[in-house]
Write a structure and sequence with these properties.
This protein has 176 residues and is mainly alpha-helical. 54% of the residues lie in helices and 0% in strands. Helix 3 packs parallel to helix 5.
């Protein structure tokens, strides 16, 4: 049996009263930590376990996908960084590579990449007003930092529901 890939995660409850920026970032951090908690203590093979055919969904795929999403919204859209063709895990040849190409993926490296994208996202937002408009449009529409934060909360919340089911499939663990 291989050793677990992830370590213990500290997850803080969002405040009941705070300004809008603090509230949104606290909820986003809560959901980021929730995904990490769902993956805690699992081996790389357990993280790669797929749900049910034909789905390619796995916990490792979710981590890789969220690394892509963090990179896209905060670096490419908000900051306007040129991130190059393709992504961290996908390409024209493999548009769903974040989910599909996990069988031989390095889980520790993928978790490190996800955490690096979270750090870059936090840095990108630092000191910006919520009304800050991204330097790139999304589908021809301007988006604000507020919209990006709300969208990211929604993205994590949806995928954390998937993570609940995947973790239960792996070892029966349930919970928040």
């Amino acid at each position: 049996m291989t050793s677990p890939v992830t370590t213990a995660t500290t997850r803080s409850e969002p405040p009941f009263a705070a300004d809008e920026t603090a509230m949104l970032t606290a909820w986003l951090d809560f959901h980021r930590a929730t995904l990490a908690v769902k993956c805690e203590g699992l081996t790389a093979d357990q993280l790669r376990l797929r749900s049910v055919p034909p789905s390619s969904l796995s916990l490792l795929g979710l981590v890789r996908h969220m690394a892509e999403v963090e990179r896209f919204w905060f670096r490419a859209i908000l900051l306007g960084e040129e991130t190059g063709p393709g992504g961290l895990y996908w390409s024209e040849q493999h548009p769903d590579g974040d989910f599909d190409l996990v069988d031989t993926a390095d889980a520790e490296a993928d978790f490190a990449a996800w955490q690096a994208q979270i750090t870059a996202a936090r840095t990108a937002c630092e000191g910006l007003p919520l009304e800050t408009v991204g330097k790139r449009d999304r589908r021809g529409e301007q988006v604000t930092l507020r919209w990006i934060l709300v969208h990211m909360i929604e993205e994590y919340a949806r995928h954390n529901g998937h993570a609940d089911l995947l973790r239960e499939l792996v070892d029966g663990a349930t919970g928040e």
